[in-house]
């Protein structure tokens, strides 16, 4: 399998269109993002910038700093409600989610988002103003923790005087930052799709379902801010199915592989469209010299 290092930062040596990937929220279902990124690496699809919301922010933050994908899978298997909150029962009230920041920092330390190997954006929501907050600098672990702060379940994360919660309230599939980071092709990975009934067994499932329902009304339509949508079929999995990490990764992998031909066609098409423009720009610059 290609390593993550083979999969990032290639735009400096190529005129091909830049690929941006937006990873959406979905808690345990967000483990599917790892499978998607593994498929891209195995099929030589380079990622030039990445954004993430909630669970997607956790994966995006580690990926952008070069953490091996296999390590993320192994870590995912060890997660549980207790490991995240430190509280033994979902029925006993509101808890902090400090452990999420510590998990990220196990991989990348207190790294600054601006220092990521590929451009990175993390999305959160200001619970007092209702505004979207986009992090392009600052501690990656803290920003990812804020992005994955399920409102009503976890205590809001305070950063620069703002009380922040799950970015899924504003932009569960964070596409706009990709354009701002210079992506020519935007790929969204949606793991929160609503396919009817989703059983709940604890508070985590209830709150996560609430965000999924909200996110289902933010559906991304190809052609509007996005070129390709990857939707792993995760209807059979709950927000707390961490022990099924291998299955979820495999579903994400297969969903991405199905889209590889479409991604390659789009790369070829956009590449051809860019060539005349680049030739004109080079000619114009030559005249000005």
Can you characterise this structure?
The protein has 289 residues and is α/β, with parallel strands linked by helices. It has 10 helices and 8 strands. Strands 1, 2, 3, 4, 5, 6, 7 and 8 form an 8-stranded mixed sheet that branches. Residues 1-6, 8-13 and 88-93 have low confidence and may be disordered.
Topology:
Elements: E1 19-23, H1 32-42, E2 49-53, H2 55-64, H3 69-77, H4 81-85, H5 98-108, E3 120-126, E4 132-135, H6 140-147, E5 157-159, E6 162-166, H7 168-171, H8 176-180, E7 185-189, H9 203-216, E8 228-230, H10 245-288
Parallel strand pairs: 1-2, 1-7, 2-3, 7-8
Antiparallel strand pairs: 3-4, 3-6, 5-6
Rounded mean pLDDT is 83
| Global structural class | alpha/beta
**Rg calculated over all Cα atoms:** 19 Å
Give the fraction of residues assigned to helices: 40-55%
SSE run: EHEHHHHEEHEEHHEHEH
